Amino acid sequence: MEADFAIRLAEKFETPFYAYDLGEVQKRTQELRAALPLGARLLHSFKANPLPAVAQQIRLGGASAEITSDGELEAARLAGHDLREALYGGPGKTNHEITSALAAGVRWFSCESWLDLQRLSGAAERAGVDVQILLRVNPAEAPQARLAMTGVESQFGFDESLLLTVDARARLNLPGIKIRGVHVYFGTQVASVEAIAQNTRRALETALRLETALGFVCSVVNAGGGFPWPYANHGPTLDFSGMQAALTAVWQESPLHETAELWFEAGRYLCASSGSLVSRVLDVKPSRTRTFVVLDTGIHHLGGMAGLGRIPRSAVTFQNLSPQGGAEITADIVGPLCTPLDSLARGVKMPSVAPGDLLAVPNVGAYGLTASLIGFLSHPAPIEIAYLHGEVVQVWRWRTGHQQLPQVPSSL
Ligand SMILES: Cc1ncc(COP(=O)(O)O)c(C=O)c1O
Question: What angle do CA 367, 400, 102 make, to 5 degrees?
């Protein structure tokens, strides 16, 4: 982001903050839509960034909502989505979540298991409505993705083999349920156009096999996507030229293109580039042979799952917005939490920094704040600022903190 603009924001607002450039969101949404086959539908996966200002911009770019919780449902409503077009997915949906989604108008669900299907059927019957189901499938073949979610044992979707058993057709025949299609999400950060096209081909083949075996009319294939973008650094981006042609060829090869719609869902590609995390240096401390730069942000605001070692750490880039011009230093960039895991980068070479300097991390508009450890150590969540053409348009803060519930049962 522009240093001058970030400095002006830091003068007006407290640090740390996330700042999202809605112009970037607009550009990426247009870019991705233009790289999909004509007529394909794009869904915004709220898990990447549920901020209503960002989601609204993606909606204005023509995407529907892909949501997985009460919170994402509310964010989609705040972003102005028509919830009748939203797709509600995720393993382990509760009766409460399904019922509130139905009450809000959601009718399309991605179904992950037999029990999920029974819950959806029960809730649909109680609400007196029909729900449209995409069967989320875990095909046998491993995908081409950096974080694979199919082709391996996983909690996501039905193993394809389970849907090809003799009793599957009867088990799908439940009140309130209309099986409308197939959903395959292969994984995230798929590294090439060829791999995205190959995954899409596999999703279409899977859908065709299931349509034949189960005897439903497949009117939707949600082929996922996994469209990549660098995380927290200026790494290379994927050249999309050739993607529309490749995906269109795959789509036209499939007999389903006569009768079905093709859907894709994306999170990181749509919003990653829009977001920067701006923080202030609180301290610069030598310790034996190392230098620690202590920020007012850390793994509670960024990359928390990586911080805990659950997923690989990305190389994090810091832009010093107020450089002092001193000699280069080698530093560990850490946060204010009381754990050595609260480290955003180790041994990075950077121009010297001083307490009070502002540092910005680029490309964190996806899987930033809400993918972090916001509750850990009870700091307030940073504010989130959405701006367009250099003007702040909305400012939000994620709520944290304890709230005592009024109802305490007198006896158990
Ligand atoms: C089912 C599903 N759909 C969509 C996404 C969004 O993926 P991405 O942000 O890589 O586009 C994810 C991410 O984990 C997912 O699990």
Answer: 70
pLDDT in tens, 349-406: 999 999 999 999 999 999 999 999 999 999 999 999 999 999 999 999 999 999 998 8
* Average pLDDT score over residue span 186-213: 96
Going by alpha carbons, the residue nearest to atom 2 of ligand 1 is: 185
Question: What is the reported pLDDT for 171?
Answer: 97
Which tokens go with 198?
A: 């190959």
**H-helix or E-strand spanning residue 96:** helix 95-103
Task: Give the Å distance between the CA of 45 and the centre of ligand 1.
Answer: 6
Question: Of all protein residues, whose CA lies closest to atom 13 belonging to ligand 1?
Answer: 188
Instruction: State which of 31, 41, 45, 367 you would mutate to test the pocket of ligand 1, scoring each by most atoms of that ligand within 8 A of its C-beta.
Output: 45
Question: CA-to-CA distance for 231 and 392, rounded, in angstroms?
Answer: 24
CA of 183 to the centre of ligand 1 (A): 12
Closest CA relative to residue 238, chosen from 269, 209, 210? 269
Which protein residues touch ligand 1 with a CB less than 6 Å away? Answer: 45, 47-48, 89, 185, 188, 224-227, 265-269, 366
CATH code of the domain containing 344: 2.40.37.10
225 backbone φψ class: left, alpha, beta (φ>0; ψ -120 to 50): left
Contact (Cβ atoms closer than 8 angstroms) between residue 388 and residue 23: yes
Q: Which helix (H) or strand (E) holds 350?
A: strand 343-351
Q: Are 88 and 64 in contact (CB under 8 A)?
A: no
| Structural domains of the chain, count | 2
Single out the residue of 185, 123, 132, 180 nearest to residue 158, CA to CA.
185
What atom of ligand 1 comes closest to residue 48's alpha carbon? 9
**Is 331 part of any domain?**
yes
Domain end call among 240, 271, 302: 271
- Cβ atoms of 150 and 156 closer than 8 Å: yes
List the residue whose alpha carbon is closest to atom 6 of ligand 1: 267
Q: Is residue 182 part of a domain?
A: yes
Q: Which atom of ligand 1 sits closest to the CA of residue 228?
A: 10
Give the Å distance between the CA of 233 and the centre of ligand 1.
20
Q: State pLDDT tens for residues 298-325.
A: 999 998 767 666 666 778 999 999 877 7
Closest atom of ligand 1 to 110 CA is 1
The DSSP symbol for 16 reads S
